[in-house]
Amino acid sequence: MSSTQPASTTELKEYCLRKLGKPVIDINLADEQMNDMIDESIQMFQEYHFDGTEVDYYTEQVTASTLTFASSATGTFTVGETITGGSSNATAEVQKRTSATVLKFFKHKDGNGLRAANTSANTFVAGETVTGSSSGATGVPHATQATAVSFGNHDNKYLTIADTIIGVRDVLAIGKGSSDDMFSAEYQFRLNELPSVTQGAGGLSYYAAAQENISLLNQLFSSGATRQIRFNRLTDKLHLDMDWDEAVDIGNWIVAQCYKKIDGGTYTEIYNDLFLKKYTTALFKKQWGQNLIKYDGMQLPGGATLNGRQIYDDGHTELEKLEEEMQLRYSLPDNFYVG
Question: Are 246 and 223 in contact (CB under 8 A)?
């Protein structure tokens, strides 16, 4: 791009320096400082500007947990049987036997019969004998705990979200796709009442009101497939509070509608955004003044004096105005889960 239309961090840096007076005057900023401030500007832009994010769909497959033995198991474990740890008393259901040393399992319970305690201290441990309830097969977990047991999202009950996602709006309807769906209230309503809507009886207002009532009923009388979501981007975990055994099978896909940061490495037009250029320049000015405050009042050859405090104050004022403008003109309503 041209010198006035930056398309990279380097070009944005040079643009801001020119706006502050380079090369006519010397701008007292280190490269490290400018890089930090550009990162800060991009972070501000991505988190608060409506052009800093885009609606995206994050997909993740439902996975089983993995149990790895130190050596080949004695006998053959059967899919569907319950395995029990000899000393930990942890239990799980075999989902798949991938090899003589690896089992896939789900429906994990700790020694107290609880489903929530999926930690290294509450699962199968090295040195104990794990036994299949129907096959009688046995195996000893790997000596390294991290290798011995790895929990899938079916047992963890959350999805691992990429750091580029800053908000989750919703999770698309989850279901196993069985014939039970035809007996749901929503299916029956559409089967029996939708023709009346299209023919004019009741109209669209009646249909919209009925849909709201169905939504309310689903919230009041939740089924196993009903899900509530919890998300905090600092943990990068999207928790789905539902009965995972009832709602999904291993291998199903879960789709979350989310807000994803615009990647400047891919979409270089971000560096030419008018707000981003103004905000970065104001940050540069504030830091420039901060650097000069130490020499405030020092007299230069010719009688001029340094006034770092004024440069700092000007930059600070410009930042306050830009941040207020961001809130009033460029921010989207808070209608998604950000923690």
Answer: yes
What are the domain boundaries of the chain?
A: 9-52+264-330, 55-62+157-261, 65-151
Query: What pLDDT was estimated at residue 41?
Result: 97
Helices (H) and strands (E) in the chain, counts: 9, 13
239-247 contacts: CB < 8 A, separation 24 or more? 239/157, 239/158, 240/157, 240/158, 240/159, 240/171, 240/174, 241/157, 242/174, 244/62, 244/154, 244/157, 245/107, 247/174, 247/175, 247/176
Separation CA 43–CA 71 (nearest Å)? 49
Question: Which has the higher per-residue pLDDT, 35 or 188?
Answer: 35
Identify whether the C-beta of residue 58 lies closer than 8 Å to the C-beta of residue 101: no
Q: In whole angstroms, give the CA distance from residue 147 to residue 154.
A: 18
Mean pLDDT, residues 162-180: 78
The residue type found at 285 is K
Q: What is the mean pLDDT of residues 133-137?
A: 96
The span from the CA of 278 to the CA of 300, in Å, is 30
Contact between 174 and 248 (Cβ < 8 Å): yes
Arithmetic mean of pLDDT, 176-185: 56
pLDDT for 317 beyond 90: yes
pTM over 0.70: yes
Q: Cβ(153)–Cβ(236) under 8 Å?
A: no
Question: Alpha-carbon distance 286 to 312, whole Å?
Answer: 4
pLDDT for 296 beyond 90: no
